[in-house]
Design goal:
Elements lengths: L2 H4 L2 E4 L5 H7 L6 E4 L2 H10 L2 E4 L16 E4 L13 H17 L5 H7 L10 H9 L3 E6 L4 H12 L4 E8 L10 E8 L31 H5 L5 E3 L10 E3 L15 E4 L6 E4 L16 E4 L5 E4 L2 H7 L12 H10 L3 H8 L4 H7 L1
Parallel strand pairs: 1-2, 1-4, 2-3, 4-5
Antiparallel strand pairs: 5-7, 6-7, 8-9, 10-11, 10-12, 12-13
Helix pairs in contact: 2-11, 4-5, 4-7
């Protein structure tokens, strides 16, 4: 096997670079396939190689023998709790497509026409690429609702010689200041497929004979400090209030100034988190206007800023986001957090690391 083959990673539905940044931390690069022009512009500005194309239409034949690792994060809108969940209705068709591909029959075109939302069938694309290209390892990510399809995919990959693991991981357990839960599938032809070891824990864990224990989850304050802006320590209709910049030291702020909450959603039961907690899962798209800072009594302060959202998602600052403000938030919310990507990929790619070094 050549060094070029062993070090090449193909990233399906590549997005703005979550997986790519995770690989970059390991000294590796990927080649992404992405159709959205704004996302491609972000990737280009960040230095990530990209083919602008439709993953479902792209031929695998030119890639055979050239791919060591395969990454995939299919679009999740049809399965996400933030959407209409048409994917739930389409699940039987997705399962059928997986079985058909495993038996050498490509029925995607006919099954796509039967789907409530044709995008649902994109979740089977990683299996098509894996069966055609036989990479050394595979890493996939999706919303938890896709877990049954990942388990099905894992069984089919095990049938052709892969060690597999599937499960749901919380990004807060891997150093992200956000309790984002996502389903993952990892598979390897060269080593046992095992979940990554957490680096953090809710509340931390004590040291014992076997180690120093784990630090507690990181909080929004840990990564953002106090959000930028001005905080008035008394209500608008009272006199004598003081105004402090939240970029100043926290000891200079009153308890109220330190009690900002991040609210995600527009319903009465919308998730709210304090600055001394991790953020909830950041959901944008239609909910963009509802990801906002509020004070302790629920009074709106301002919307979450792009750079704050990117930091909470684990991207380095500054990151060259392209497109409209709405498009930038959409890219951030859809991306795999880079720290989690690094933790997940590190055990899969030691051979590639040796080549890259």
């Amino acid at each position: 096997m050549t060094a070029a083959r062993r070090s090449r990673v193909l990233d399906l539905f590549a997005g703005p670079g979550g997986w790519s940044e995770g690989l970059r931390a390991l000294g590796l690069t990927d080649l992404g396939i992405e159709i959205d022009p704004a996302v491609c512009a972000t990737r280009a500005a960040a230095g990530h190689a990209t083919i602008r194309a439709d993953v479902a239409a792209y031929p695998t034949t030119p890639l055979r023998g050239k791919v060591a690792g395969l990454i995939g994060s299919p679009p999740c809108q049809t399965f996400s709790s933030a959407g209409l969940r048409a994917g739930n209705t389409d699940l039987p068709l997705c399962h059928q497509a997986l079985d058909d591909l495993a038996h050498g029959h490509d029925t995607r075109a006919s099954l796509r026409t039967a789907c409530v939302d044709p995008r649902s069938l994109l979740v089977v694309e990683p299996l098509r690429y894996a069966l055609d290209l036989r990479p050394d390892w595979v890493a996939l990510e999706e919303v938890p609702a896709v877990q049954p399809l990942f388990e099905h995919t894992a069984r089919l990959l095990a049938g052709v010689g892969y060690s597999t693991w599937t499960g749901v991981l919380n990004a807060a357990d891997f150093g992200l200041a956000q309790t984002r839960r996502r389903a993952f599938l990892i598979a390897s032809r060269t080593r046992p497929a095992l979940p990554p070891e957490p680096t953090h824990a809710d509340g931390g864990t004590p040291a014992d004979l076997f180690g120093n224990g784990l630090p507690p989850w990181r909080t929004m304050r840990d990564v953002l400090g106090c959000p930028p802006g001005l905080v008035v320590t008394r209500g608008k209709h009272t006199t004598g209030g003081s105004t402090f910049p939240t970029t100043g030291p926290s000891w200079a702020l009153t308890g109220r100034a330190r009690s900002w909450l991040l609210k995600v959603g527009n319903r009465p039961a919308a998730t709210r988190r304090r600055l001394d907690q991790p953020a909830p899962t950041l959901l944008f798209g239609k909910a963009l206007n509802d990801v906002s800072w509020i004070d302790a009594d629920g009074t709106p302060i301002r919307r979450l800023a792009v750079d704050e959202a990117a930091t909470l998602q684990g991207f380095p600052a500054p990151y060259p986001w392209a497109g409209s403000r709405t498009k930038q938030f959409e890219q951030i919310g859809n991306a795999v957090p880079p720290p989690l990507a690094t933790s997940l990929l590190r055990p899969l790619v030691p051979a590639a690391l040796e080549v890259a070094a």
